[in-house]
Write a structure and sequence with these properties.
9 helices, 9-stranded mixed β-sheet, alpha/beta
C-alpha cells in the first residue's frame, strides 16, 4: 500500500482475555491521526465480540487462522499505510492517553531515525531502556517491541519478520537493522504497559533456544568473546538487607576486582596472578 499517514498501530491477538484494555488504550489516545489494524487469529472466546464494539475505529480487521505471531504481524505490515508502525498486541496497552501525542504530535522530531524505542512498564515497574545502544546490546538485552515505532520502509527494504522463529523474530530484526547501520533513537517516554504473561517471557526454554540460534547466526566468535570480556560485573554486599557494606566491581577486559567500603571508599584491589 501507499504511505498516506504518519502511523499504523497493529494489534495482533488470539483468544485474548485482556483485549478490552488494549482497545481502550488505543481509542483513548489524545492524538488520533493513525490507522488501526487488527489481526485476529480466529478467536473463539468472545475476543471478536469485544473487537466489534470498536469496529467504527478499526480501519482493517482480519480474523482468520494464522501460522503464529510473526505471520500475523506480517499480515498487518502488508496492509499498513503508515510511515511508522507500532505493534500494540492483545493484552498490552499504551501507558497513558498522551503517549502518541508525545511521540507524533507537534514539535517532536523523528528525522533521521529508523527505530524509535521507548521505556516500558511491566508488572507496575518502569524499565528504562539505555539511551544509546549498539549491536552488542542485543547479545544480552533487547528493547521492548510494543514500546517501539519502526519506519515501515525497513520492512519494504529488508523483508518482514522471519516466520521460522516463534517468539524472537523481532530481536532478529533489531540485530539485522542495527548491523545494517539503521538509526535507533531512544524516546524518553514510557510507551507500553507490557503484558508479562505473553509468549516471549524471557524465562522460557523456547525463548532461550531461539536467542542462542539468533546470536550464533549474527555474531562472530570474536564479537561474543569481546562482549563477554567487556561486561561490567558488580556485586553489592548489604548489611541488614539495605545498608551497603561492600561493592565489588570486576574491571572490564581484565581479571581485576575493586572492593569499595560503603560502596565508595576504596578498600581492596584483587588481581589474579598469572604464573
Amino acid at each position: 500500500g501507499n504511505v498516506c499517514m504518519k502511523l499504523s498501530v497493529i494489534t495482533i491477538c488470539y483468544n485474548e482475555k485482556n483485549i478490552r484494555k488494549t482497545c481502550e488504550s488505543i481509542v483513548g489516545q489524545s492524538w488520533q491521526d493513525f490507522e488501526w489494524i487488527v489481526v485476529d487469529g480466529g478467536s473463539t472466546d468472545g475476543t471478536l465480540d469485544v473487537l466489534n464494539e470498536y469496529r467504527d475505529r478499526i480501519d482493517v480487521l482480519i480474523s482468520e487462522p494464522d501460522n503464529g505471531i510473526y505471520n500475523a504481524m506480517n499480515k498487518g505490515i502488508a496492509r499498513a499505510r503508515g510511515e511508522w508502525l507500532n505493534f500494540m498486541n492483545g493484552g498490552d496497552a499504551f501507558c497513558d492517553k498522551t503517549v502518541l501525542e508525545q511521540v507524533f504530535g507537534g514539535g517532536s522530531s523523528r528525522d533521521g531515525a529508523d527505530v524509535l524505542y521507548g521505556d516500558m512498564l511491566c508488572r507496575g515497574k518502569v524499565h528504562k531502556m539505555p539511551v544509546a545502544i549498539d549491536a552488542d546490546f542485543f547479545i544480552n538485552g533487547s528493547i521492548n517491541h510494543q514500546s517501539s515505532f519502526i519506519r515501515a520502509a525497513l520492512f519494504r527494504e529488508q523483508g518482514g519478520y522471519n516466520e521460522n522463529y516463534r517468539v524472537l523474530s523481532d530481536v532478529e530484526k533489531w540485530i539485522v537493522w542495527m548491523k545494517a547501520g539503521r538509526v535507533f533513537r531512544h524516546l524518553p517516554t514510557v510507551v507500553a504497559d507490557f503484558d508479562a504473561g505473553g509468549v516471549s517471557s524471557s524465562g522460557s526454554r523456547l525463548t532461550k533456544a531461539e536467542k542462542a540460534k539468533i546470536i550464533a547466526r549474527y555474531y562472530t566468535t570474536e564479537e561474543l568473546a569481546a562482549n563477554r570480556a567487556g561486561q561490567k560485573v558488580c556485586w553489592t554486599v548489604k548489611l541488614f538487607g539495605f545498608l551497603v557494606l561492600l561493592k565489588i566491581r570486576k574491571e572490564p577486559f581484565q581479571d581485576t576486582f575493586r572492593v569499595n567500603l560503603f560502596g565508595f571508599v576504596p578498600l581492596l584491589k584483587i588481581r589474579k596472578n598469572t604464573k
